[in-house]
Amino acid sequence: FTLHAHGQIEINNITQHQSTTLLNIDTTHYTWSTHDMTNVYNHLLTRGYQYGSSFQKMQSLHGTATSVVAQLTNDLSAINDLSSYRLLHPTLMDACLHPILTLIPGFDTTFIPVGVQKIVNIGKMDLSYPNLEVRGKYRDNISGLGQDGTYTLD
């Protein structure tokens, strides 16, 4: 297949009340937390996700068995030409999926995301932001494409 990305981007320049919680994740009840991203990316490598240094943007992970909050770095100093990127560089958008991949149970299956339902940006977004927070939930409903076509797991 040739579909690499599908999604919807909504940009709202909201200056009134800006919620810090996009998803209903209780941040006071984390059951695990790590700043050791080498181990996290090594774990993803054993699952079939090989990310080079340009794509390794996670700085910290906190979560439960079904939810995750990650801090991502927006360090684009290694990118030579940023003139065509006004919002999010593709490596940063890709890195937004990495925290959710840590929630998928098991060790022997690779899932390739083929769609993003929604990306919400609250406030002004530009390349000068040094960090980005990503929140995700695992809902026990995974869809994807295999060699034999589309499949859905519950």
TrEMBL record:
Name of a matching Pfam family: PS-DH
Domain (PKS/mFAS DH): residue spans on this chain: 1-154
Region called C-terminal hotdog fold, residue ranges: 31-154
Segments for region (N-terminal hotdog fold): 1-16
Highest taxon, organism lineage: Eukaryota
Protein name (database record): PKS/mFAS DH domain-containing protein
